[in-house]
Amino acid sequence: MQGKARTDEGKRRTTVEAPASPTLTAGQRPAAAPARAPQRRKRRPAVLALGVALVAAGGLGGAALYLTTGQRVPVLALAHDVPAGQPITADDLTQVRISLDPALHPLSADSHVLDMRATTDLKAGQLLTAADLTNDPLVLAGQEVLGVSAKPSQLPSAGLTAGTWVVLVYTPSAEGTGTGTGAETLPTPGASAPGGRNGGTGTLLQSVTVRVVSVGTPSASDGSVVVDVAVPGDQAAPVADLAASGKFAVLLAAPGTKGGG
């Protein structure tokens, strides 16, 4: 019996009683579970460096854009209209300050453009670019300058300017006004005139393409004007005879014809 009593007493000692749940009264909230300590993220130096580089690149790009589009610089512009072929003078130029634009390519204010010729009709206020000017000579080696006096009816209504390519065409039905013999007795280059020293047979000079060097002021009496043209040296004599006869017309050369157009 004593052994059984001891056994019962041992069981009572080893039995663990579950703790009773706390009783909540009105207005009380259950105790919050203890917060977990936040885990620290691992830093990635490569990602951090990339972010810094992107920020720096963005700042440099913005600065470059400001400098190219916001900075105002002096450039050349036209103070007056300049016809195609005319040389640029100091009075034709003015300076303006503009904000640089990658799409624009105006000449800087310190560009040397005096005496260069306009490649096209230039308008007042227009910004001057390299494509607007040329240094190509009007008179090439081996050429001679010949003055041709022409009446308004012999010239194109569009007018002529230096550098324009024109065609002098023989017009046998026109009434001659000069002392020239006319194209019917003019030899082509390399041929001798009738009765010449070489006894050759002349051929008709129907037309010749030349380049305008300058245009004079129209006469107050009849409106005639002297047009200086550059003529190949071997054609100077026959072209001069044609011009003296007055039996010619001045045509604008077709585009692509020896620089015409």
TrEMBL record:
Membrane-spanning segments: 46-67
Biased composition (Low complexity): 28-37, 176-191
Keywords in alphabetical order: Membrane, Transmembrane, Transmembrane helix
Domain (SAF): residue spans on this chain: 73-134
Biased composition (Basic and acidic residues): 1-15
Residues covered by region (Disordered): 1-42, 176-197
InterPro entries named in the record: SAF
Protein name stated in the entry: SAF domain-containing protein
Classification of source organism: Bacteria, Bacillati, Actinomycetota, Actinomycetes, Kitasatosporales
